[in-house]
Amino acid sequence: MENKIFMKKHTIVLDCKEVRLTTKLPIWLIPEDELKITSNIKLVLIRDFRGKGNTPKNYAYHFEVLYRGELYGYLNAKPSEKALGDNSVRLKISNASFYDSSYPDFWREILATDFWKFQNIIKLHIAYDTTENLQKKANRLCKALLTDETPSGKLRFVGKGAGGITRKTEAWGTEYIMCRISYIYNKTKEIRTNKKGKGYIDSFHKLNGLEGSDVYRMELRLTGNDFRNLKIKIDPILLCDTKSLAGILNQAGEKRLTIIETKRSNPRKFRFINPIPDSLKVEKLQNVTPENKVSNNNINFVHTLDALTEKYSHYTMMELMEQLKKDSEKVASICAMNKPFDGNVLLGKLGLK
Fold first, then answer.
1. How confident is the model at residue 93 (pLDDT cuts 50, 70, 90)?
2. Can you spell out the DSSP letters for 274-340?
3. How many CB atoms lie within 10 A of CB 94?
4. At the N or C end, where does the chain have fewer CB atoms within 10 A?
5. What is the C-alpha to C-alpha distance for residues 17 and 168, in angstroms, rounded to an integer?
6. What residues contact residue 214 under an 8 Å CB cut-off, 6+ apart?
């Protein structure tokens, strides 16, 4: 019997991310044109900029963000909005970076450095790509929402301010926009007609088994306000985790993309599209709790090692053995607690914090 190879028919990936960080000091006061943040991350000052796109007018200074020598995004500093403060910066990650296998390492390193601190999400686009024709589903719904002829009356989206559905024609064909946050379109056609050269997405699809037919995309476009209004909370380190992104899709879809019949005493509710496969479904996105903050503490592990290295580097071997014996007595109580590693607690016990 011939062995059949079953290829993946879906993938979930970020397609846009802008976040706000707070630096320890106003970055624009640093006189160098290049600033090394970590061994892999470097900022390069942009002197000739156009005042839009990656170098918006409402920021006075702009930097390229290089990761291992490759362009991974842009950093904008000194905002014109005074309320943000001189230490506030915007980080916009380039689109191609999300489709590179090194992106998770880059994002973890961004969060690990103590040069800045993560503040909030400005913009986040999550893309669910599949070979299933999502446009057909959207087309049927579009008709159902515009007619009274169904036995149960009109269908509508639930939720205050949920909005409706719009249909528009783009260069690559029909695009459906639902409740302002969800976009459905033929991604394969968009790549073919896009002049910006997004062939790397096509390569990403093939690498993940999405080939042989057109790929359709359901893209959730959220702002920081959407996260607050939908009451979605997430540890920033999980923004490169597929299951967490699926959780955001599910939670936002439950609150915005659920449909209800209007003329039944016991109206049926159903999701317009819940394409997330069972293996990735999350009943509710887990908020950050002390128990699941271990990943955040692991970020601090690097800082802990740096601090300990600095503390012990000047000792001779005999002095080091003696000092380690004294310090082990100080931290014995931490070991007895049998809790996840917390670098801050350890450094506090050693008088380094």
1. very high
2. ----GGG--SSPPPP-SGGGHHHHHHHHHHHHHHHHHHHTT--HHHHHHHHHHHHHHTHHHHHHT--
3. 17
4. N
5. 25
6. 131, 133, 186, 187, 188, 189
Q: Any alpha helices (H) in 197-275, and if so which ranges? A: 199-207, 224-229, 242-256
CA-to-CA distance for 159 and 3, rounded, in angstroms? Answer: 48
What is the pLDDT at residue 162? 63
277-297: average pLDDT: 38
Contact 300, 343 (CB under 8 A): yes
**Given CA atoms 73, 76, 77, 82 in this order, what sign does their dihedral have?**
negative
Q: Which helix (H) or strand (E) holds 17?
A: strand 10-23
In one letter, which amino acid is 145? L
Contact assessment for residue 253 and residue 267, using Cβ atoms and an 8 Å cutoff: no
- Please name which of 148, 144, 136 lies closest in space to residue 176, comparing C-alpha atoms: 136
Q: Which residue has the tokens 């359901």?
A: 218
Among the ranges given (98-102, 160-164, 251-255, 302-306), the one the predictor scored with the smallest mean pLDDT: 302-306
Neighbours of 213 (CB within 10 A): 11
Compute the distance between CA of residue 136 and CA of residue 228 in angstroms, rounded to an integer: 32
**Sheet of strand 41-45: strand arrangement:** 34-36, 41-45, 59-67, 70-79, 88-93, 10-23, 116-130, 216-223, 182-186, 173-178, 165-170
Amino acid found at 276: I
* pLDDT surpasses 80 at 44: yes
Calculate ∠ Cα 112-114-119, nearest 5°.
Answer: 80
Residues making up the chain, counted from first to last: 353
pLDDT at 331: 63
Among 74-83, 129-138, 268-277, whose mean pLDDT is lowest? 268-277
Longest dimension (CA), the chain: 88
Residues with Cβ within 8 Å of residue 330, at least 6 apart in sequence: 349, 350
